[in-house]
## 1
Amino acid sequence: PLKLGILASGSGSNFEAIAEAIASGELNAQIQVVIYNNPGAKVCDRARRWNVPAVFHDHRQYKRRQLDAQIVATLQEYDVEWVIMAGWMRIVTEVLIDQFPNRVLNIHPSLLPSFRGARAVEDALQARVKITGCTVHIAALEVDSGPILMQAAVPVMPDDTPETLHARIQVEEHRIYPRAIALAAQQAKNSP
Ligand code: GAR
């Protein structure tokens, strides 16, 4: 099984989708640890329900590289091989990326390379695109960039708000993230 470490800042619905895919046998993996950076993040309760250890690292206490060093230490402590950013709202540095070459994955709520950044859903609405979606990619140093593993398209409805659109995008996120993790592992095996 792939040994996953999940980084999440908020609700953790993607964590839950991955946990469910593992439980149903769709993804051959195990979640070693969840790392979160906001006290009271809902992902923490979800982790408890799935009996997954959750470790808090407060980004307010560290500079970016120091935070990543703390995270790397925890990931190593829990024997993690694949780092899965699932709603991780911090910019990561080479301190994390270099430790897990081609093994840090990210999900983003747009069809990259469109609408990078923290307001992707709002920005897509504002641009009046008719189709948006979500992307799973291998994380490079530049924010929301790196080789794309999987994407799903989501139509924008005329009466969409950021909330309604994001909710439909998340349905697709939950579907593709477990598959993209399996694909990344498959690709790594074929070209080590
Ligand atoms: C997801 O929609 C993810 O694509 C987005 O945050 C949400 C987290 O949801 N990520 C970003 O915007 C990264 N810049 P979740 O906590 O319920 O998984």
## 2
Amino acid sequence: VPIEQIRNFSIIAHIDHGKSTLADRLLEYTGAIKHNSGQHQVLDKLQVEKERGITVKAQSASIVYNYNGKPYILNLIDTPGHVDFSSEVSRSLSVCQGVILLVDANDGVQAQTVANFYLAFGKDLKIIPVLNKIDLKQANPDKVCEQLRTLFDIEPDEVLRISAKHGIGIKEVFEKIIKELPHPEVDRTGPFQALIYDSWFDKYRGALSLIYVNSGSAKIGDSISSCHTKKFYEVKTISVLRPEEENVKKIVAGQIGLVGCNVRNIKEAIIGDTLHLTSTPVSPLPGFTPPKSMVFAGIYPSTLSEYTDLRKAIEKLTLNDSAVSVDMDTSPALGQGWRLGFLGLLHLEVFSQRLQQEYGTEPIITAPSVTYLIKLKSTKETEKKGTNELYINNPINFPQSFNITETYEPMILGTIITPDTYLGAIVQLCQERRGVQVQALNIDNDRIMLQYQLPLCEVVLDFHDSLKSLSSGYCSFDYEDYGYQLSNLVKLNILLNSVPCEELSTIVHVSRAQLVGRQMVLKLKDLIPRQMIHIAIQASVNGKILARENIQPYRKDVTAKLYGGDVTRRMKLLAQQSAGKKKMKMIANISVPRNTFIDFLKK
Ligand code: GTP
């Protein structure tokens, strides 16, 4: 079709506001899928997504809609809706000319609505505001229109009112897309130039790249090259997603399609890379900033025999999720493992859930940590390295305090939207987490939007859960990266009978050291079994003891429960007890079972 009959758009919405339902309805309306064909929410492909009801990996569909006797191709680019995935949203939006801003008419504007609006607004995209779920009795579209006006300067008469579930207003959505969104500005006669905006691995066809063609065209058999790696490939397959794959021979500017070149290594299908015909080089399209790991966790097999399975599972999963960074790691207590980096906590949770569901592994996952920046005093060593900056996400690598000049921690800008009844409790929580208020705005007569600058480490643990529980689930939260900030960080050591136990150490803000030290010592007191010797558990910072607990000695007599007599049974039990001891790690003559570490590190 002519370029004037193409529209590329995304639906952006807060979680559960009905994005997948609307996408299904759009596909159904044009006959791309059958009504109630059991293909509900066809764009959410992964099992975890289904279970959690969240979209993780962006999927796309090309919809054909006839309007005024002409066929239009509407390319719907699916975007993930959750806080952790804003880099994926941003990536998807860069191939769109407009978005549908979908808002639940009962729930109103929520934190991700705000975050997603600004992502689209920042990219200069045309925004079509749509209220969903107007069929609900509690729906209050007028009030939500008021919120849209206050926050985004959107006039109520621009806002569509629909019910995705009941198919009300769907035709109007199509017409607005066609009338209001600009068509892509491309040059079909120019040299082939395409952007890879997603990629995944297919068992049979190798790496598949989802591309947006910015100029020219490519067909099966062409030799195409990557601007980034300079490697070249023969195009083997091209398909469009309707949403089922439909093979085509050629793809032209303005279109979106899936290209396969029989590449066995997914790392060669780089998201953000530009493709061109090998014979006609072009300059690269503005790429994307690569996804940045914000949250790290150690992953270890729960038994040694699971190591190989776990390694394979991690390799397979990271094949399709280039946002996960992988490093080897060893822990004296937990053995050989990995330190993985994630976009955020939800990303970590989704990943570990997939490890379990899809690969049947039950790994030990340590409490998440963030990356700190440490500036060191100049020494011969820093001169040799050419930098005195050190980024660490593992407390084991925290330098001695006398080598440090400054410490910095990663910050976020958090957006919270809440009914005003919970305001007091939320402000208190943010203050406890060392937050600094940036903005407080009434968005209607009983709802408030708060923005806080918060340390990421205070958010990764349970901030979101705490917010939800103190607001009975009525408040929403989203965050964006806010750079590093000078902060007084220290390493909190745990000592068992005066011997430091590295894998139990953590990095904390100096104001939290006392409290966290106290909590850790108490927890360990519960977890470490009594032994034949006295045990002192201490928490210390820079050699100063902040907290201490004792475990009194106790003779564990495994034979006590037997009434005398049987010598062989007695011997057998004693042998069992000594074998059990081998599984323990000895620290200063104290045997700490592996399970203690596991329970402690898991949180
Ligand atoms: P994520 O993919 O997790 O971001 O969620 P989503 O925005 O795709 O939401 P989804 O389409 O899964 O819808 C969430 C819930 O709202 C589902 O239970 C839908 O059935 C329901 N829902 C969607 N649209 C409507 C509507 O128009 N009216 C009513 N009453 N319910 C709706």
## 3
Amino acid sequence: MSQLQGEIIAAGAASSNLGNYEEACSQFHWEDVEKQFTWYETGKVNMAYEAIDRHVDEGRGGRIALLYQDGDGRQESYTFEELQEKSNQFANVLRSKGISKGNRVFVFMPRSPELYICLLGILKIGAIAGPLFEAFMETAVKDRLEDSGAVALVTTTALLPRVRRDELPLLQYVFVVGDNVQKEEGILDYHSEMNQASTNAEIEWVNREDGLILHYTSGSTGKPKGIYHVHNAMLQHYYTGKVVLDLKQDDVYWCTADPGWVTGTSYGIFAPWLHGVTNVVRGGRFSPGDWYDTIQRYAVTVWYSAPTAFRMLMGAGEDIVREYDLSSLRHVLSVGEALNPEVVRWGHKTYGHRIHDTWWMTETGGQLICNYPSLPIKPGSMGKPVPGIQAAIIDDNGKVLPPNRMGNLAIRTPWPSMMRLVWNNAPKFEEYFRIPGWYISGDTAYMDEDGYFWFQGRIDDVINSSGERVGPFEVESKLVEHPAVAEAGVIGKPDPVRGEVIKAFISLREGYHPTEELKAEISRFVKEGLSAHAAPREIEFKDKLPKTRSGKIMRRVLKAWELNLPAGDLSTIED
Ligand code: WTA
């Protein structure tokens, strides 16, 4: 199927936590993972306890948990004990407002120590955390807070204007991190609330199946879906942290993802702290020099990033790599979109490290198909299923296909970190499980004779731009709010650095003329109303868009236009 299949980069000699892959798979029992947690003995469950407090109780409280640095010169470090105290304080702040178990509490702010402290505090009272990416604008913020029924939000002075409090009757409290917080009903000054709160707090013990976090993510139709995860997910986070991230006690670990996306929580908070390792968080924007400097400055050993970032680093060249000491690195991983073989080869040559691809989704809560330190890598392949996970390629009727046949990438249900609900949307949830016994990912792939999985694409129209999932419907809905836009169809257009960029096909209303200024204005309209990463980078005006007889815009035809491909079956087209 692919000429790439023959290429192999051998496993390194270094010992890894996984050991022999086949042996690990055949001897695997989730119960052995459960034994790693205190609740296996005590019956008392809480993710925040296992991630933070436990290390203090077991004498590791003085270790550095968080090393934070941003582009504005803020640089701080926190031990596990300090994080315990601060998150206790925030738990007490929330409790003092009557907020309790099961309530949804959102955080909408750039990466900062406060973001991590608040998230842990939310979990400590058994509330459900909802992280929002800082680039979200008014509509995106409102849709998510409204759908989830959030009662409280933590944000910053700069982001507060994007919160339409008058349209969110359930949102009672907004904690604002910043100076000179305005005095208004329902607005609370985070720092003065924290200063009044005790550093001791009782943890709310929950059930393994109680809510942990809601991550909103895009599909091809409808508004973003609230993917609901429970505390039980910690089994997957812990186990993959051990065998995929290969975390060891003294590691300094850096995950470059923002907690607004699932990678930034499952692997930017939970997995590293369940292992008690030092977690590096770098705020601010991407720049090759700053990134290499982060690795050098903190002597990062395990680095988890994304194809877009690696492609940009590749674009920055090899000379800049030599200006930094990256010799601390031991293990490098990637997630979010297909990792090009070229990038794997470049990383191997330039960093002297194999970049280990990992496949998973917001809905899966944790890594499922991965490359491991102790296994050879086939550049271009996502690797093999995590021990304990059964993956297969199945056809639309649920028949498992033999090797080298392309089909639906599916996972045997259940596994510990599988989503438990789509918030407020049972039909959407059920769509993923329409074939009994399987979770249907929406990705297509094939498996080769050696059991390696190869990503082929999406079944639906979901766009993956720089590793961020963008739903075309959300962008189209925003576009048609613009007075000039009659109709809009949005597709992902292949791009060498970003994977895909967003391209919009637009038909204009009477009286509007197709100009470059109008294109720029429409793009800005989406950027300011929805979010920067959802704004079309390219706009093409058309007199008419291809539609089905029932009036649905046929994105498949738009894509075929764009790529100069045959448009396929047009029997349902309008005219
Ligand atoms: C894509 C991110 C190819 C895929 C954790 C999936 C990938 C979607 C890979 C999930 C990979 C993720 N190779 N494609 N290694 N990892 N994807 O929910 O299409 O933001 O369905 O989760 O990203 O994106 P999400």
